[in-house]
Specification:
Helix content: 10-25%
Strand content: 35-45%
Number of strands: 8
Mean pLDDT: 75
Order of helices and strands: HEEEEEEEEH
Number of helices: 2
Shape: globular
Length: 145
């Protein structure tokens, strides 16, 4: 009974901190936009019975789902980092960026986070990320259409 009261008290404290303004509301956080359109897309990883899916949006928000034989998890929120680490939800989940996105000869893309190689297929010519890439290239070339 005592441990139940302690757990309930701890949960109440966490909720009070989050709701009382001491911890920012995730909905109020502005995500960091990816450094290039190469990051944007639907990434997947699989190893035996375990798999993960990471969707990175052009505005910097991400969604993550993982499934394994003993656990499943999912969350969504603003992404931050993009250099050595990629984090989401105020650092509640952080991945080390071993290899940033690179395009293979077949047009598919890979990136390695925490030793896991995520794969994304090639995009169509009308994708949001490709439009962002065209705008970035135009800005670099001095074209201000």
């Amino acid at each position: 009974m005592r441990s139940l009261l302690i757990s309930a008290g701890a949960l109440g404290l966490i909720m009070a901190l989050g709701c009382g303004g001491l911890v920012p509301n995730l909905a109020d956080l502005e995500p960091e936009v990816p450094p290039s359109a190469n990051w944007v897309g639907d990434w997947s990883w699989q190893d035996g019975e375990s798999s993960a899916r990471l969707v990175i949006e052009a505005n910097g928000n991400l969604q993550y789902e993982s499934q394994g034989p003993n656990s499943n998890s999912s969350f969504a929120g603003p992404a931050m980092g993009w250099e050595k680490e990629l984090s989401c939800c105020l650092g509640l989940s952080t991945w080390t960026i071993d290899t940033p996105p690179v395009e293979g000869e077949d047009g598919s893309w890979t990136m390695t986070l925490d030793g896991r190689t995520f794969v994304r297929g090639p995009r169509g010519p009308d994708s949001e990320a490709d439009e962002i890439e065209r705008l970035l290239e135009a800005r670099e070339d001095g074209d201000t259409e």
